[in-house]
């Protein structure tokens, strides 16, 4: 059960890891249980453009936001959709994770084979199966996200301003196309083949049971090798080492910048979003802005808003 919570967060954000993508990880039960895709509680999205409040995020989006190490109030994320799929070309960089996976997993399989440890061999094979299960389930979620990203509604497309309050009480600004906010950020992606998806999950549970039993019966050398490989890959994944968090799937991409940071106050971040009067009234209704009679607050707000307009000019 070690590492389950961290792996659910790290794997569930659907970001690509060029080093550990094809390596076994601790907490594989979170993959089989589909825990990595379930929504997290404690998040609120304020769609300021459309005057809508949402109290639930898609599981991948909430985990992605937590992985960003955002500032308390001043982080700003611009999301866009690629016109064409982003396919990794077959070059030296794209072959690195495949080569690392083949070498380390083959070595892990050869150790018990050379020692004549058949329980260890079965546990090594089950580690390979866990990689297949994880790759399939994550790829299905990424593909579903890609389909949602290119599915536009009948209404005219425009960017919407949103403010996301995270479970750690940080406030981040997210600007994205309306259909991305609705179909990707607030709606959990649905795999195209749900029955096969459930079968692979069942295989993951069966494989997890086999690994737990056989690793306990393996020789000490095999146990040390298995723990070293999975623990090392898990630590690198949890730390997000070399993880590509800018491109999610083949369609979504994000650019991060920081609001001009005077004192790091949330009011200053609001001021730089250049709200219309209608949007300001919506913020008052949500109790994110004080009433108009709070003259001092509004004077400071308009002062920062004017300063931001001058800097943009």
The helicity comes to 40-55%
Largest beta sheet: strand ordering: 1-7-8-4-6-5-2-3
Total of DSSP H or I helical runs spanning 4+ residues: 11
Pattern of helices and strands: HEHEEHEHHEEHHHEEHHH
For the largest beta-sheet, the strand count, sense and barrel status come to: 8 strands, mixed
Secondary structure class reads alpha+beta
Round the mean pLDDT to the nearest integer and report it.
Answer: 87
Percentage of residues in strands? 5-15%
The gross shape turns out to be elongated
- The first-to-last residue Cα distance is 55 Å
**Uncertain regions: pLDDT < 50 for 5+ in a row?**
none
Oligomer state of the chains in this structure: single chain
Total beta strand runs:
8
Radius of gyration: 23 Å
Write up this protein.
The chain has 313 residues and is an alpha+beta fold. The chain is 52% helix and 13% strand. The chain is built from eleven helices and eight strands. The chain has an eight-stranded mixed beta sheet. The termini are far apart. 34% of the residues are buried.
């Amino acid at each position: 059960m070690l590492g389950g919570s961290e792996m659910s967060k790290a794997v569930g954000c659907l970001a690509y890891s060029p080093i550990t993508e094809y390596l076994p990880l601790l907490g594989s039960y979170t993959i089989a249980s589909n825990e990595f895709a379930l929504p997290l509680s404690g998040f609120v999205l304020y769609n300021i453009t459309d005057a809508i409040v949402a109290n639930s995020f898609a599981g991948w989006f909430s985990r992605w936001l937590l992985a960003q190490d955002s500032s308390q109030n001043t982080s700003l994320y611009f999301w866009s959709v690629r016109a064409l799929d982003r396919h990794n070309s077959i070059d030296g960089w794209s072959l690195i994770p495949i080569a690392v996976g083949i070498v380390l997993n083959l070595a892990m399989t050869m150790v018990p084979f050379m020692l004549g440890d058949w329980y260890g061999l079965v546990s090594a094979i089950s580690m390979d199966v866990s990689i297949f299960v994880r790759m399939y389930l994550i790829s299905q979620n990424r593909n579903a996200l890609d389909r949602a990203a290119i599915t536009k509604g009948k209404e005219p497309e425009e960017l919407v301003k949103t403010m996301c309050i995270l479970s750690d009480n940080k406030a981040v600004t997210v600007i994205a196309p309306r259909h991305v906010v609705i179909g990707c950020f607030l709606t959990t992606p649905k795999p195209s083949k749900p029955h096969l998806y459930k079968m692979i999950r069942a295989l993951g549970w069966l494989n997890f049971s086999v690994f737990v039993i056989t690793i306990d019966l393996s020789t000490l050398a095999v146990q040390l090798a298995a723990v070293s490989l999975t623990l090392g890959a898990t630590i690198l994944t949890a730390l997000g080492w070399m993880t590509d968090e800018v491109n999610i799937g083949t369609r979504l991409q994000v650019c991060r910048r920081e609001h001009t940071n005077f004192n790091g106050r949330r009011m200053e971040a609001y001021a730089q979003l250049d709200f219309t009067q209608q949007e300001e009234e919506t913020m008052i209704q949500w109790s994110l802005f004080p009433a108009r009679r709070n003259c001092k607050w509004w004077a400071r707000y308009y002062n920062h808003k004017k300063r931001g307009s001058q800097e943009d000019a």
